[in-house]
Amino acid sequence: MDSHLITGTQQLMRFFISLLMVILLFPSLSSGEDNEKQYSLKGNVSDHSTREMLTGVNVYLKGTITGTVTNERGFYSLEIPEGNQTITFSFIGYKTLEKEVNINDDRILNILLEPSEELLGEIQITAQRRFFGNMEYGRELPSINAEAISKQNSGNASDILHARVAGVWATKTSGAPGDQQKIRIRGQASFFSSAEPLYVIDGVPVPIVNLASLGIADLNIHDIENVTILKDASSSSLYGYQGGNGVILIDTKQAKENRIDFTIKTGLQWFDNFYDLMDTKDYIESLELAKDNIKSWVWYFCPTYSDTLCSHDRQDEIFKNGIVQEYQLSGSGIKNFFKYYLSGNYTRHGGILTGSLYERATAAARIGRNFGSKLALNLSYRGSYQNNKNNQNEYNGNRLIFEGINKSPCLECTPDSLIYFPNPPPVINKRIHFDYRILNDPELLQSIIDDNQHQLLISSHSLSLMGRYQISHHWNIDLMESAMYRKSVYSSQSEYYDFFSKLYPSKGNVDFLSDEEVRLLNHQINLSYNNNFGLHEMEFLLAHRVYADNLSWEVDSLNNTLPEHYYLRNSMAGYGMKGSVIRQMSSYIAHVSYNFRNTYFFSAIANLSRLKEGVSIDYYTLFPSLSLSWNIANEPFLSTTSWLDELNFYTNYGVSGNYPLNGLSNDLYGYVPYSSGGEGYKDAPYVDQFANHFLKHENTQELDLGLKSSFFNGRFKLNAAWYTKKIDDQIIQRDIPLYYGGGKIFINLGDIEVKGYEMGFEAVPVQTKDFSCYVKGNFSSSEQVVTRLADGQDMLFYSADVLFPEFIVKEGEALGNIYGYKYLGKWKEEYEGNKLYYNDVGSAFLNIDTTFRKLNEDDKVVIGNSVPDFTWNLSGSLQYKNFSLDFTLYSVWGVDKFNATRASTILTGVNRDAIPFYADSVTAMRYNAFYESSLFIDNASFIRLKTVTLGYEPEKKLWGIGLSFSLSFENLLTITNYRGYDPEATIFTDNNFSDNAIDKGAYPNPKGVFATVNMKF
């Protein structure tokens, strides 16, 4: 494990050294032997007021046709002859600037452009990535702009990062409409606390509740202008207790021109990767075989086969085609000194499961105005309403898939042809093996469909005010005030079939209702100073931030017990029946940065933060960070390398925290019925989750080494980084012994170390007047090792469900290890007499603990790991005149998954793969070890063609309307050895190390085709 990381790090460093040697030894390759010697003038162009890097600025040598444009980082490189020259900088909306330079004096020229005469009175509101000062150097800040976002097929904002950024593992764990991606930035770094990044939308931080981020699905993807990812602790330390898992900054659109956009999208989704389930004839014959050979319990359900028996493929009844409809309308412009952007969206998404439906309506407004030449204000509002039916991300997976496909193909046949034994056989070895007696259960498939009536209603509103007061050209005050309110109501409804008629359901009952509300306020004010002194640039910032949130919830169960599906992601119902928690975080931030010749950069941040939750938790923490950067391309000895734009080596160190909003510091109560002596039963409160009044945040310390490079005026870019981070004071859940009253409590216990490296490249290999080609790729790898546990004791996570594997966390082992028995296949003669092998009624298992004649817990070994070794993605864009082709490939490699869905179909006998076990008299399938073994561990690695999009935009308008058309395909091809529905899909669990490990009725990602028409007025 460590040697693997060391080898990877050595390879990365060898690459750095090789690249540096090429540059140092062969600078003359680009100098040429022209009659007049040429030199490379380099620099950045940015806005005079906000210091935003300007993309597309024209830079040319006056009096000639020699010129270039700045790239998305505001960088330019221009070849000019020696002597005194005049360089012209021009950009729409800004004053044209001419600058006298002498290339013999210095070859670095940074430019600040001022707005044109028409815009001189406008003060620009700075983007979030600049709100804390200059963060462009000393780290990599990947970003995704509106153009790239518009090419994505999804209407879900959580899909933005999918297959886009190195170091970001974004996986679509569920194909359910309205569900969100699982995002991990630089590894899985927590046991029980959240591993989700913090989203900040127009200054509104989105709370993290019960392991997952709220609200990102509330956002309309068409309203997004830019997304910036803070991956390292040196930048995420700005958010203190909330930044430990990385931060994603989202800026929404504002007015740029007078225009109206209307978009219509329609699509079809389908799923066809089915299990090989048996028809009635083969099914009954297999049960007869089981009855004769292994005396299995499943034979109790066996009817006598006849041609009159019906035969159903349950997968055809469960899965259906999904229809997607979306309507988007937006308008922007300038009216009476106001700049405005208005947007509305309606989406209706029918899922690929029967009864699955998601509807969402969003509205957004952003209004800005300048008051004189000193003050600018910008007010934005976002609201959404969501209706999500039958596809909630539940702890036990989707019941319709898991139980539905296990119904026999002849269940709806005539009653006299079926024999029911509803009472289950006895439990064996304390694992609920025979809880999956679906063949013995008379419940019809239709009753499961009707009983799967879950509904999640979400309404959210957020308001943000941003302002800037320009004291002078060098001093500014920035203000950000934001508020959010979000209400979630989850309910489940059950309908029951009469056992004898099986025709009409009884009246439905609401069994479970959860009402949850989240409120937050966020305030931030900055005082910043920025000035250039020749080749020196100095920036200083002081900021004060106050963040406060309040979560309250109440659960109502008419049956006095919570149903199996109560434990939802984002829901507090799993922690207690009722509760409320108020949390406040305040920060005092100082940031100083220095830039010399665009070559040497230094940045230091100090964030003194206070965390206050409930009445007991109240303490301060210092989150420091330091960044250093050296752009070797701007050194004089590389002045003749005109093809080298940037070669920036950087290192940074930072500290950040992780403290999700889970109400962990408060006692949480549940209710149980009790007899009051003659007065019937009443509800009595009890403490279900005990408070820890000394609970602290998880603390992340991270060190980065990296490289950013650019060649041939931005035609080719290469980024690479190596990082190591330690996360201590891990928040875990512990059971309280019964002699102390029982219950659970969260405590700080244990450390995790994460190491990894990442690489990314961008290239424009071909660019002509009519044709261009763009390609981008990323590679990421990380390993998570548990370095400390209290007293060195292992943490064992055990479920009575035999179709849940065990997870044992041990010091020195990787996070995500899956434990079980090593299944070796059929018993062989060569195993006889060898104590290392155990014969479990015809099946061979590895017997580590040879002192016992039976398999026990000591024989369990690591049979898989649910955290991937590495991920990579490749995307490209081809443009020919008015036609375009975009594609995205995505891969996750070296990841294992327990396929509980497949195991259930073997247990219940509906899968054709069960026949060999019956035929060979392998009675081991009657026992728990069979299902707790590596037999059902699948390699879930895959390569997926995520999206392919064809686009066309006519040159001429039609009736004054600009049109564009696109046809998109998703998930058309997946290469994998996974034996289940979808290698990417997984169920939600209550911890991070098993969250990607189990497929137990996981909602698969469908294939799809979508047509979109956009009209611009």
Describe this structure in words.
By secondary structure, the chain is mainly beta. 8% of the residues lie in helices and 47% in strands. It contains ten helices and 52 strands. The strands form eleven sheets. It has a 22-stranded antiparallel β-barrel. A hairpin with a 2-residue loop joins β13 (208-209) and β14. The chain is globular, with a radius of gyration of 31 Å. The model is unreliable at 1-9, 22-35, 416-440 and 496-508 (pLDDT under 50).
Helical/strand content category = mainly beta
> Which regions have little confidence, pLDDT < 50, spanning 5+ residues?
1-9, 22-35, 416-440, 496-508
Beta-strand percent range: over 45%
Radius of gyration equals 31 Å
The counted number of beta strands is: 52
Largest sheet: 22 strands, antiparallel, barrel
**Average pLDDT value?**
81
What helical percentage do the residues reach?
under 10%
Distance between the ends: 58 Å
Please tell me what the overall shape is.
globular
Number of helices: 10
SSE blueprint and pairings:
Elements: H1 2-25, E1 38-47, E2 58-61, E3 67-69, E4 75-81, E5 84-90, E6 97-102, E7 111-113, E8 143-145, H2 146-150, E9 168-171, E10 182-185, E11 198-201, E12 204-205, E13 208-209, E14 212-213, E15 224-230, H3 233-236, E16 247-252, E17 259-270, H4 280-293, H5 314-318, E18 322-335, E19 338-350, E20 357-371, E21 375-389, H6 399-404, H7 445-451, E22 453-470, E23 475-494, E24 509-533, E25 536-557, E26 578-596, E27 600-613, E28 617-631, E29 644-658, E30 668-675, E31 681-690, E32 698-711, E33 716-728, E34 731-735, E35 744-748, E36 751-767, E37 771-788, E38 795-797, E39 807-809, E40 817-820, E41 823-826, E42 837-840, E43 843-846, E44 861-865, E45 870-880, E46 883-893, E47 896-899, H8 900-907, H9 915-919, H10 928-931, E48 937-939, E49 942-952, E50 962-976, E51 998-999, E52 1007-1016
Parallel strand pairs: 1-7, 11-16, 31-35, 47-51
Antiparallel strand pairs: 1-4, 2-3, 2-5, 5-6, 8-15, 9-10, 11-12, 13-14, 15-16, 17-18, 17-52, 18-19, 19-20, 20-21, 21-22, 22-23, 23-24, 24-25, 25-26, 26-27, 27-28, 28-29, 29-32, 30-31, 32-33, 33-36, 34-35, 36-37, 37-45, 38-39, 40-44, 41-43, 42-43, 45-46, 46-49, 47-48, 49-50, 50-52
